Amino acid sequence: MLCGDCGMGRNGRNSNNRESVAKTFVVCVLLLLSTTAVAQGAEKLVITVDKTITADDGQSYLELVHFNLNGKIYPFTMTCLRRFPDCRPLQAGDKFDTIEMDKDDPDRYPDNTDSCCSLRVTGENSSMVYFVVDPKMRARDQLNKGVTAYKDNHYEQAIDHFQSAAQLDPTLINAHMYLATAYVSQYIPGVDSMANLRTAQQAIDEYQKVLHNPSAAQDQKVNSAKGIAYLYLNQKKWDDAKKYYRMASDMDPYDPEPYYSVGVIDWTACYQLRMEERAKLGLRPEENLNPKNKGQKKVCDELKVKNTPAIQEGVGNLNKAIQLRPDYDDAMAYMNLMYRERADVECNDLNARRGDLKTADDWVDQTLLTKKAKAEKQPGQQGMTMDQSK
Fold it and tell me: In which element (H, E) is residue 99 found?
């Protein structure tokens, strides 16, 4: 006789602790199955057990490679079976051809909130095997399909899969992380169309879900804060961007990238303001503000007051980034630019201006030497991975 019971609770553990079922085992079945279709009973299902594998710990796992629904072979996702000791185990060659819906029974399934289905095995003893179509397992299948689509540059398909994964299992943190990443891949920096800004906001919303999830790992929260900051940076929302880069630094003070990014924002804000004022004065790129020119000196004094705090903050953050990553050539390049910003507003101290320009040139040399030393190194590969635990 072949029989079984839904033994998976919300946390994926055996929900029945009775002594009589202490020796039960879990058989993991790979299925792609719609509970709605099962409930309607409209499909004809044929599943063939090809082989079973018994693990060292005594748990037995079932491999099913035949899944024929209405003549179509489907890929698989996961759900679980559990049988009582007095039932014979599943065997290679077993065929299931009938599927029925068994609604929640609080006596049989005290922890289970999902409807249970049953398979009827063909043969002389037409007995039932119960199983749960587990949304969390289906969510992982959608997550993995989304990763595959993303790696194949099918971003719209990836977004659909990640959305499904997040809906099936809201606690699957990587579903929100990967969905945000897929939205970012669709975002075009510098384009202020409503559709593009909506895509950015969708990514921010998903990152925020991770930031506010107490179960999220620190690296997931750090990456979410950096993701939000990146989107605000590209929308020129400098204060918002710096807020989230600082948040990332607070969570991981040994990550040089947020410090570098704050330095880039500080330089960008200073540069844009200075160039606007220089354009009004009609200055050529190679010309510095002249303290002997009354109009230029007035502008220079005003810029120094406005830009000095950001220049100081930027230099401090870029120095911190380089301390944490001594070969951070991008940070070195911005150190050069930041010292040139400071030099141009040193209208009342020409010696300080010359010193800043000399320091800027030194950073150019250091940047080139560092780039040369790194030229033959290959960057490490990063990205999404399959079958995440969160």
Answer: strand 95-102
Question: In degrees, to the nearest 5, what angle opens at C-alpha 332 toward C-alphas 326 and 333?
Answer: 150
Grouping H, G, I as helix, E, B as strand and the rest as coil, residue 67 is strand
**CA atoms of 132 and 130, how far apart (whole Å):** 7
Residues 247 and 212 in one domain: yes
Residue 385 has pLDDT above 90, yes or no: no
**How confident is the model over 53-92, as pLDDT tens digits?**
444 444 434 444 344 444 554 443 333 344 333 334 445 5
* Adjacent-strand bridge partners of 79: 29
Residues 125 and 80 in one domain: yes
Alpha carbon separation from 179 to 4, 92, 257, 259 (Å, rounded) = 37, 39, 22, 26
Instruction: State the pLDDT at residue 139.
Output: 81
Running DSSP on this structure, what letter comes out for residue 377? P
pTM of the model: 0.65
Distant-in-sequence, close-in-space partners of 255: CB < 8 Å, separation ≥ 6: 222, 248, 249, 324
Q: How far apart are CA 341 and CA 308, in angstroms?
A: 9
**Which residue segment(s) compose the domain that 281 sits in?**
139-374
* H helix runs in the chain, sequence order: 35-40, 135-151, 155-168, 173-186, 194-211, 218-234, 238-251, 256-281, 294-324, 329-344, 350-374
172: closest CA among 204, 134, 201, 200? 134
Same domain, residue pair 102 and 185: no
Q: Can you say how many angstroms the Cα of residue 324 is from the centroid of all Cα atoms in its chain?
A: 24
The length of the chain in residues reads 390
Q: Which residue has the tokens 């150190």?
A: 335
**Which residues, 6 or more positions from 371, have their beta carbon under 8 angstroms from its beta carbon?**
329
